[in-house]
Each structure stands twice: as C-alpha cells, then as structure tokens.
Amino acid sequence: MPEPLAEEVGRRRTFAIISHPDAGKTTLTEKLLLFGGAIQLAGEVKAKKDRIQTRSDWMKIERERGISVVTSVMTFEYDNHVFNLLDTPGHEDFADDTYRTLTAVDAAVMVIDAAKGIEPRTLKLFEVCRLRDIPIITFVNKMDREARNPFEILDEVEQKLALDTAPMTWPIGQGKSFSGTYHLAKSAMRGPDRETALTPVNGPESDKVAGLLPENERETFIEETSLAVEACRPFDLEAFREGHLTPVYFGSALKAFGVRDLINALGELAPPPRAQVADIRTVEATDAKMTAFVFKIQANMDPNHRDRIAFVRVCSGKLQRGMKARLSRTGKPMGLSAPQFFFASQRQIADTAYAGDVVGIPNHGTLRIGDTLTEGEALVFQGVPNFAPEILRRVRLEDAMKAKKLKEALQQMAEEGVVQLFSPEDGSPAIVGVVGALQLDVLKERLQAEYGLPVSFEMARFSVCRWISAPEKPELERFIDRHRGDIARDLDGDPVFLASDQFSLNYEAERYPDIKMVAIKEYH
Ligand code: G4P
User: Fold this and answer.
1) 271: CB partners within 8 A, 6+ apart
2) Which UniProt keywords apply (predicted)?
C-alpha cells in the first residue's frame, strides 16, 4: 500500500448536514465554507443559489417556492483536512434524493434549533443515518436567541432519538448574553469564531469565562458546567463511530460562535472514508485500485446542452483524469476525460481524487444512479436505495404526435432520478412514479422547458407499487402471467407489481407468500 495514498485518504472527511428546514443549515454551510477559505464572504451560498436559479427555467420552482431541489457538493480544506460537504434538498418531497446522498457520506452534522429541539424532518433523516450507522455530530444552533436549557436539549436528543449524548462544549450564556463556548473536558473557552484559538482557562469560574456573563447568570453557569462534567456521559470515540453516541456542540451559525468547535470536531473525531460493501468483497478506502459509485445524476445546468453530470463517490484508489474505468452494469470501458471537483463558487477539473471525494463526471446518459466504476474488477457496490413511489400518474400529452419524443424525455428524466418510470407489460402507456408531489411539478416544468412538451397528469388505476421477486424463477413467472395487467417493468427491466390500493396489495401478498414484495430496491 503506497504511503501517500493512505495519507490522502486519512485527510478526507465526507459529510452531510441534516436538519429540519429553518434550523440554520444554509447559514452554517456558509460559515463552514468561510472558515475553509472556500468563499470570501459569508452570504455567497445564498447568492449562489440565486445565480443557479436564474440559469435554467425548470429551477423556477425552486425560486418561487424558496426550496432547494438540487443536491450539490462543496469541497474545502481546513487544518490539513479535505472536507467534502454534500448538500441535500431541504424539502421532504425530494426525500429519495436525500437518502441516496446519505449513502455517500461517512458522517453527518445534525443541526437543531435550540428553541425547537428535535423536529419531524430531523427525526426522519436521523433514522436514515441510523440504518447505516453513520456517526452524528450534533450542533445546537441559535443559542444567541431565546433557547431551551441545554440539559433539556440533551435529554430530548436521548429520549426522541434513543441516542446517547456527550456535551463537548457548554454555552457561555444564552440569548442576549451568549458570548462563547466553554470546553468541558479541556477547561478552555472560545469566543467569537473570528478568534481562532482555544483559550485555556482556570475552570468555569475564572474571570475569562464567568466574567463574560452578567452577574446574575454566573452562578447558574458554574453550576451547570460542573453538573455537565459530573453527570453527563463522557465522550467515547468508539461509541460515536459506531453511531451510538453523539458529541454535542452549542453555537450560533449566524453570529459565528461554535462553528470552529464543530469544524475541529469534524477533523478530529469524524471518521476518514469508510470501507464499502460490494457484492464480492468489502472495499477498503486505502485499496490501491480505483472503485467508485454513482449516487446522483443531475442535468446540466445549461439547457442548451443535453449532457449530464453524474456525482460519483470515490471508494478506493485514485480516480485520475484520463483514466479508463470499467462500468460494472455493462462491463464496458469508459474514459474519464473530464472529471470535475466542486468548490463553493466554481467547478474545477479534477486531476486526482481519493476515497471520500465526490467528483462530477459529464456524460451523455452512460451513467446511471447506483452504477459502479472500477479499474477492471467485476464488482458492484450495494446499498444505493430506490424507494417505491407514493404517487403514480399517467402522463397526458397535449400533442399526440409527440409521443415518441415524450418517451425519450421520460426515459432521460428517469435515468436522472427525477421520476421513476414503469412500462406496463400489457403495452399500455408508461406510468410515472414519484415520492413527493413537487417532483411532478419539476417533471412538468422540465418537459416544457427542455423538450417543448406541454403535459398534464392523470390518475392511474394504481396507487401502490412493489418490486417483486421469488426464490424460484417459475414461481415469479406464474405470478406475472396471472397478473399481466398489473405488472410493469422499471428502468432496469425489473418486474413491479401495481395495485389499486394497499388492501389489494396485502391480499395478493397473502395469496402468494413465495413472492417477495419490497418497497425499497437497492440498485445493483
Ligand atoms: P435552513 O437552511 O436550515 O432552512 O436555515 P437558514 O440557514 O436559511 O436559516 C433560517 C433562518 O434562521 C434565517 O433567518 C437565518 O438567518 C436564521 N438563523 C440561522 N442561524 C441562526 C442563528 O444562529 N441565530 C439566529 N438568531 N438566527 C439564525 P430568516 O430571517 O428566515 O432568513 P434571512 O432573511 O435572515 O436570510
């Protein structure tokens, strides 16, 4: 194993931020990028959002509804670490996209609003992280506002998430008097994040700390910190890395307090790129040969070009510009002539990427979500999920002459993961499926803007669908034969059973116990 490879891998931290809308994810992202030197001025993340939104018509939806649809990745360096921050759509209608992005990270930062505690979307995203044992660092944001008591917040995390907590810092004051963070184990404090250094102090009662607070708040602060040291769980690296315990940091993204604590925690505590499970073996991040998988496809921002960017997470070895990779799904070689890195405000050609890095690979439809790329080995990564849609519709075309064009357009949208496409076995027109209603709006906008196809949607006869399989092929064939009018094929040709409602789905499942019906398909 060449040393420099292990060193490069060891420097990488690939993470996502999970939170309920409005908890402060965007503000925190801006601050992280600012400290990472990736942007000059805080505020550019939002400015960038605006710029992108004007680039293409279909993003009008984002602008009008003030939501972020597009997953992107931002790379920055801080303190000799390379951070890859994978952004996720905030709106729950794009949940499948978010879940797939979480398959590409090694850690997550959970942002909690200090006044609101654990909110529904945070809980849901946390559950996805738990399924994959993704270690979580908690950032309790908005301490500069009226906030709950820190013990109460810790307790809520423990109760609602069944996750052990270890407070690493304690807020020096709350609301108006919030003036920094006190490090419980190190007996040190940090003021506003402009001041980089952690200042050692003589306990919480020292003038440097308690002295920052109004007199009537000092005693409570000293009592609370002593109680936190005595009564709270100490940090345990192993429990954190296994996903059983979360270190908790307090701060204010807006006022830039506690953000350096967080970024240091990501560097010091969060794990380097993890080993990834493939069908034939487990791939270590430091293995010499390149492997990678696609977790997201995005249409080119420029509507004049039909090419797409595949977001690829490197799992081992070196991904180098110009190299030839093997695409596992087809077994065919593929030249990686122009892989790209993403920084806050620009893209840059990537010469070399290591495990944990995310690169964009421009292509004309060769790559699909879940695809594995290797240096020749016939191996396939497991675990990029595809969720059964909750809404099924037929697409109605205003101009029937354009049916062929619609077919092509839907195929492309499905390959990008915008919608799922099901072709009924009986030859009737294709059915589109989505997890959230806003995805239908995106589809409609894009069909109009990019293909000149005005469409509307009609209810389909079905409302539920499941992927089906059976231990023996003849059993599956028999089931398909008997239900021909209710069977469709997905993009990969895998069979799907369509039912009018949950009741009839359950009924068929009981009648055919050998047929496995699943709501989540893992790409393979
Ligand atoms: P999101 O991406 O998680 O949805 O949240 P975002 O960062 O956009 O923050 C939501 C609102 O909360 C914003 O206010 C933002 O300024 C505010 N905020 C974020 N972090 C903090 C913090 O640490 N302290 C305080 N006091 N406020 C914070 P807004 O009024 O909705 O937007 P804007 O007009 O200020 O941009």
Assistant:
1) 106, 107, 135, 241
2) Cytoplasm, GTP-binding, Nucleotide-binding, Protein biosynthesis
